[in-house]
Amino acid sequence: MTVFEAVVEHDYERVVFCHDSRSGLQGIIAIHDTTLGPALGGVRMYPYANEEDALTDVLRLSRGMTYKAAISGVNLGGGKSVIIGDARTQKTEELLAAMGRYIESLGGWYIAGQDIGTNPADMAILRGVTAHVACVHRSAGGAGDASAATAYGVWCGIRAVLEAATGEDGMDGRHIAIQGLGNVGYRLARHCHSAGARLTVTDVVEETVAAAAEELGADTVAPDEIYDVECDLFSPNSIGAVINDDTVARLRCLGVAGGANNVLAEPRHATALAERDIIYGPDYLVNSGGLIQCQEEVLGATTDEETVFAKVTQIHRQTLDVIATAADEGIDTATAADRIAERRIAESRASGGAWNPLRNARA
Q: Pick from 26, 25, 16, 119: which is nearest to 59 by CA?
């Protein structure tokens, strides 16, 4: 399937190519679906090998945001944007401002947040040229880094998967294998440790692994060895597509749940996990805590962390509901999550309550 065929098949609303010669900006904004509200999604800055890879990624990620919002009960749509470049060496205020002007030109159909390669300080720069931005640094009046809410939500999802697998709600004595110790993964490791879990961790940054070993008493393994660790739950918190033909057969766990996006290399790998009696917590539900925080900020409800975390706790119940639906319907949990999300979007369109009247008219 070509990229254009994917745009048509999954009915994307807008795909905008962004170029600014003065700042060197090369970017793409993808708006997938705004039935439930304006599209929200992070600005990812990454040194893609070519424009096609960047386009493929932004399409995949924006569609994922639609499903994440729908299943988590958030009144927002799905979007994403990417900037082609190395955030460590090529990110400038001028470049971010240029991206902000493109976001502003969409008139509120897309709301930006942080992602790989961007942070709350960058969102404050965007706020200087567009009001359509979330995850703004607290010093600039925003809710700040959404990683804490994301990590807490992943912890809630892990608890649900373990409860479904063992019949007990609790982590005391459980063994959690954590892949990736970035902003989300390290916070998640702390939550699991505080709840009494034993940890095995890995990351490509050796200093971070050493810090987790010292602070949390975690065992450590090389990055590729994490799939072979015998544990209660494997938690992917770095790159996507880590559940694939090679790794499914290597896993030695009761469940999989983590903060990474697009964990499954292909949809069929959810079935492969189910066939091995490994319970999969759908990634876009389990990692939706950050989106819940962004909704509270965008809709003007609250930026208070305690209040946001109370709302994020719903991920525990929602994950159990998805697992129960999968069992009742004889399907894998990824398919169950998709159906729940699609039903919410379809019901909104049918009721005439869709945020985007143009899309509602087309439905």
A: 16
**From the first residue on, what is the mean pLDDT of each consecutive set of 10 residues in the chain (363 residues)?**
67 96 98 95 95 93 94 93 97 98 97 90 94 77 78 98 96 97 96 98 97 98 98 94 97 97 94 98 96 82 78 97 97 98 93 66 47
CATH number for region 148-288+316-342: 3.40.50.720
Structure tokens at 19: 């170029």
Domain boundaries, the chain: 3-59+78-136, 148-288+316-342
User: How many alpha carbons fall within 13 Å on the CB side of residue 306?
Assistant: 0
C-alpha distances in Å from residue 275, one per residue of 191, 263, 271, 331: 30, 17, 6, 11
Q: Which of 68, 80, 91, 311 is catalytic?
A: 80
Q: Is 91 a residue of the active site? A: no
In 107-155, DSSP assigns E strands to: 110-114
CATH of domain 3-59+78-136: 3.40.50.10860
